[in-house]
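User: hey, got a sec? need Ferrous iron transporter FeoA-like domain-containing protein folded
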Amino acid sequence: MSEPLPSSLAVAPAGLALTVEQVSAPQHSPEWAGWLADLGFLPGEAVRVLRRGAQRTGNLVVRVGQSTFALRHAEAECIAVTPRHV
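Assistant: Yep! Here you go:
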């Protein structure tokens, strides 16, 4: 049986090559969508989780394009991804 496809960056396994499909924001922080887009989280962009914090809902270290960022779990939940086809 195969692994389920990640639906958001927050649940994606470390090391898997992904593509950003969509960026949304929670109702309580609508500015997050623009902030994440400014960082480079745009549809079609390559992204990969490099490291996860010790706890399941901890911070993530992610690579988008040529940049590396630390994101909170809640921010990573705003980024819909699919596996990247190479």
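Quick note: Residues 23 and 79 are 5 Å apart (CA to CA). Let me know if you need anything else on Ferrous iron transporter FeoA-like domain-containing protein.
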